[in-house]
Amino acid sequence: MNNLTLVDFAKSKLGTPYVYGMKGDVLTARKYEQLKILFGPLVWESDRKKIGQVCVDCSGLISWGTGIYRNSQGYHDTAEKVFPISTVNQAPAGAAVWCKGHIGIYLGRGEYIAADGSRYGVRIASVKNSPFTHWFLLKDIEYKEEEMVTKEPIIYNDKKYTVEMIRKDGVTYLKTRALWPLSLFLPEIGMGDMGVGFAAAFMMLVPALLLFLGCQEYLEQGIAMSGGKD
Fold this sequence. Notes:
CATH architecture of the largest domain: Alpha-Beta Complex
Mean pLDDT: 82
Number of strands: 12
Strand order of the largest sheet: 3-8-4-5-6-7
Order of helices and strands: HEHEHHEEEEEEEEEEHH
Number of domains: 2
CATH superfamily of the largest domain: endopeptidase domain like (from Nostoc punctiforme)
CATH topology of the largest domain: endopeptidase fold (from Nostoc punctiforme)
Oligomer: single chain
Largest sheet: 6 strands, antiparallel
């Protein structure tokens, strides 16, 4: 399972009731009594009303998807690196948000999904208003960056075109449906690396510049095919 399918799986379980110790199974009367003996007050008296329903706890929401069972501390302890929650804006969708005794799944844009206790069940909420203290990548999940496609205006030969741009793995490039062997990569360059980055980018673009000069008509046709000419 990768991080994006984990997010989709968790969202498909929105509204599932929470019972401590449940992992996505039907809560039976016998199971409820067993959980009360094992976990005492962590299993609420009101949880008895959930008998007959599929229930889950916070770590169980993740385990339900992966089929690998760990508690919230186990997920924490098997992470290669653990980061403070103040840096969660750097976390990919599908990362774990965690505090001692609780775990959720980061969705991006400051939101998480979790089995958030007996009062709420599985819900989406704001990280800012949560008790989470750390985030990390889950050991059992493969992390992929979601491909983002946007339409952007570009100017070529004093003519304006709207083309599709793809951002993936930190790189933005031109998406074209034309049978044209050209990918225009736009590397992200930090201020500290601007001199070296500019020189490297210039050397990488020399072949493309020569191609532009020799094949302008065909290139223009390729750009026009990838978007609407304004």
